[in-house]
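We emphasize that the prediction below concerns an isolated chain of 321 residues; any contacts that depend on oligomerization or on bound cofactors are therefore not represented. The input was used exactly as deposited, without trimming of termini.
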Amino acid sequence: MEYDSLFKQLLKTFFRSFMELFFPEVAARIQWNSIEFVDKEEQGQAAEGNSEHQSFHRSADIVVKVATLDESEELILIHVEVENPWRSTFPFRMFEYFALLRLSHRLPIFPIAILPERRIKPFEVETYSEELFGHKMLTYSYFHIGLPGLCIDNYWSDENPVSWAFSAFMDRRDRDKIPLMAECYRRIYEGSLSDNEKILLLDFIRTYYQLTPDEDTAFQNLLRQETYREVKEMELSYYGKLRQEATHEGRQKGLQQGLQQGLQQGMHLILLETLKAKFGELPQTATDRVEAIQSQERLTDLATKILTADSLAELGLDGIR
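Result of the prediction step, given as a token string:
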């Protein structure tokens, strides 16, 4: 299953909630009004006076620049990487990210890896090391969160939306999947969240709880109960909005494509009429070549050259390749 898009969107939207859930002591030392997401282009930019270093040849999932309350470290980077499936090369890749970010930004880095489907120790610090001639030359560590190894009872929070979202992966122990998902929906409904945040959480939970057809039927039956009536109305409302947005986006895309095609067809007709007026009846090969041009820039260039051309041959339309 592809994790990149939804995970990145969730982490960017609820980054403070994520840090407060898993790293409360670190979160308490961050000035949250200073948070700045570093985009892919900026990730590899060399720091001032450091232009000799090569820029990134790969992009990290989430890189955040924040100010801290610590006088010794005013600015830091927090790097979060989502890895699924886990590969044996991943620890080196985390070190590679660390090295490149450190060289580019010259800031301390707090690295975190999230593994949605790897059951490891509840909250592990992973280490990458290198040895040469029997000597340990390098040791690098990062926090390694294997979500299936976390007990939901230790991380569930009525106030933290990331705990609701990540409950899809955590060890539920004896808790029933269907009522737990319904409780997530209730928290979304009751939470002080924007419409876009609620839609994102619903989409995330619906995607990663991965209900079977029978489980989905049971879930919908549960939402029809009076206890969940308002929650069900919310689900219908927000999924209705998603469908409307998708339909609108499709219509807009179709309209754009139609306008583009219409513009090209119009330019083809104008060019052919202009060519006929200047050179007389056109051979079929010339007509075919004009109609085969899809680039608007090429069509405009051809229209300009017609003004000074003395023959179809000058325009590459004489039938000779």
